[in-house]
Predict the structure.
Amino acid sequence: MTLWVLLAMLLGVAFGLACHALVTEPSSLKAWTDGLGLFATIFLRAIRMIIAPLVFSTLFTGVGRIREAATIGRIAVQAMMWPRSWWRWPPPWR
């Protein structure tokens, strides 16, 4: 798996360098970036579509395996308080 990730990174760098070397006109560069922007949008939407059900199913399965109600309540309180640990009220810019 690590080898595939490294190869994909190297392929991305090579593609970027090739595009930079081959496309010199601003008008053609705009067309290239618009076309690549479509792929980026599709990729990000696919990631969002996968992440939400994955997180929900992981939480649902994890809570389903807990047998004691007190443990569920303790975990719920910790989960609700965790974001509070990095929030500041009032905000520092006030």
